[in-house]
């Protein structure tokens, strides 16, 4: 059996590799190609087809092909603004069958969008029926809805029949469609556009017609108009849904280079709801935000506890306008809730602008001036071509009217000539001078009567010398036009036509006159369709930070020995009488105790000083808000502590002012003073606050004015008071100087910055305390041994803390077992500096005081004292 793959050698085996083997003759028609080159070429062809033919608008009329075809198709159907509407199914079918073979859904979706007043700043289609809503409700099926062109669409289609633009064949070469529309206005900027092509996208916001026309007129008059002047005329985009645009930097960016980011915020107002409740009313939403989804999103965030202070959300919108009501809980701060809404919901969105369009068949990003100049160039071409068309038509009419005029001047001869002719052709030829007289003796006689100079040898002669068109028009002239009045109308029309021709020639002969026509037409459009701006532009106060979302209030910040940090509202801790048993303030582990407690505002800075003399920087609102019995969050999750580093003290600072100092004291009796401003910008890993010697630790840090007194107390009941000026200000890495000479085994437990009017509260670890006037401590020089501060016994224990207090100061104590006691400082008896004090808190034998804090009256929240009603402790909220 012969081998079909090799007929010359029947015994040869077929080639290996499998696959279909073509006959030799067929292989001669195969051209080998590189598949990479073919894929690259084919994909580029496809991408350019999508870019040019579907996804991007033309810079001249601002329309994508589908929108242009819809408008042209509706115009061809006679669906102008002053005609009845027709079913959208008929419009879609007509456009689909003649111009746009890409599916009825794409055509109907584009038609619907052009009819939506919340999508288009100036809708191009006048829809009748359900065309969707701002809640993203879908439109009714095309068989139910009707449409026609809007009035402003006529401005875009105007002069289409005057050869103003080029036409091309449709997809099957059976009809002609315009390549671009001869719009009077820059629709690309008026209504904007949005589309995704291959490897590129466009997103152009809508603008106000009045403003854009003013800017266009300015550029027509002076093409070198600077951007600053254009921005005076066009301050920014103008969205159909209104809302508020924040800042001008994004506007400047896309005006300049075609790209920018806009920040759009909902327009809201405040209303009182009941006696002490407020409501936030949303009346305008950012462009393209779904109202129904927004309401659902707010409700979901409230249910998830991510959005606090809202009691109810409802949509009260109707045909008269938008109204979404957000009711707040009693005594909630409106600004805080509103900032949270802006941060967490689509009440504030970013709109990324990409001013990309088709320019001379290629996609290009343009600034606003370039975009307007491209439109002006298009408009100049349209007006020139229209004028040339009108001039040609006027000259054709003038030619006929000149023939009529000549005929009227020789009316009897013309009539006699026509009557003497045997047929219209003979009459036309006689008027044109192309008749051979020997063939018609009757006509020969008539012509000879009116033209004595005629010859009779068959030569073509005429008295009138009309053109063919003039002769034909004269023959077809109705008898009624020969009346005196009608004759005058012909002469008047001729004069008017000649005036128009003169005007057309002036337009074509002067660029200034031509641009004047453009300006005149722009002003007409502005007069007919110009309206007020809807989107307000305000200065951007900056990105909404977490601080804007946090209510400013005083809180108690606690840190345990295990490093757990939390903040709790100050009014959680109620006053109790001296000797009370306190309450459970924090659920701690057996081995964990509270070591630090202070009061600070949520908007303050926390300067966190560690045992290794380093400083970390933290906002109070970044500390987790937890209940009184909660453990909180480990501080390692908030700041990056080094190994074997623990927090020793922290200060609440609202501002880093140059006239304030930070005074630091160490366990081994070293003191250091630095200006507060040197700590205003620490790094995430912390900075050195004080250089420590081996085995020394930072104990305390306080803010001073530079003119205060320093009070330092030790664990064994000693204390020293000296002038702050004894310590000079030093740099951050400095080690400091000696503050107090210590006995063997003693160490510093606390330091306070005081004045001569201060009262010092000393608290022992077994719950005893006493108040002593600072004046009872004699002023010494720095580095002295000090005086007795508190008489210590086995009953009192050792000194745990020293606090500066006043008569209206509250004292908060926390025990190692987590109990909290809040009591008035004035209830603690004043004693001398060597007294043992009184019992402050009752504890179990195994318990001890872990930390103490003084709360000034000015730091208390309003209404807090209402808890002190003589009924003892109240349950925690």
UniProtKB/TrEMBL annotation:
Indicate the principal place this protein occupies in or around the cell.
cytoplasm
Name the active site residues.
144 (o-(5'-phospho-dna)-tyrosine intermediate)
Which Pfam families does this chain map to?
DNA_gyraseA_C, DNA_topoisoIV
Name where it's found.
Cytoplasm
Superkingdom to which the source organism belongs? Bacteria
Query: Compositionally biased, Pro residues: which spans?
Result: 1-16
Keyword field contains DNA-binding: yes
Q: Which UniProt keywords apply?
A: ATP-binding, Cytoplasm, DNA-binding, Isomerase, Nucleotide-binding, Topoisomerase
Renumbered residue ranges of the record's region Disordered: 1-27
| PANTHER family attached to this UniProt entry | DNA GYRASE SUBUNIT A, CHLOROPLASTIC_MITOCHONDRIAL, DNA GYRASE/TOPOISOMERASE SUBUNIT A
The extra comment attached to this record reads:
Few gyrases are as efficient as E.coli at forming negative supercoils. Not all organisms have 2 type II topoisomerases; in organisms with a single type II topoisomerase this enzyme also has to decatenate newly replicated chromosomes.
Family, similarity comment: Belongs to the type II topoisomerase GyrA/ParC subunit family.
* Role according to the record: A type II topoisomerase that negatively supercoils closed circular double-stranded (ds) DNA in an ATP-dependent manner to modulate DNA topology and maintain chromosomes in an underwound state. Negative supercoiling favors strand separation, and DNA replication, transcription, recombination and repair, all of which involve strand separation. Also able to catalyze the interconversion of other topological isomers of dsDNA rings, including catenanes and knotted rings. Type II topoisomerases break and join 2 DNA strands simultaneously in an ATP-dependent manner.
Q: Record's HAMAP family?
A: GyrA
What's the name of the protein? DNA gyrase subunit A
Annotated source species: Paludibaculum fermentans
Lineage, broadest ranks: Bacteria, Pseudomonadati, Acidobacteriota, Terriglobia, Bryobacterales
Q: Which gene encodes it?
A: gyrA
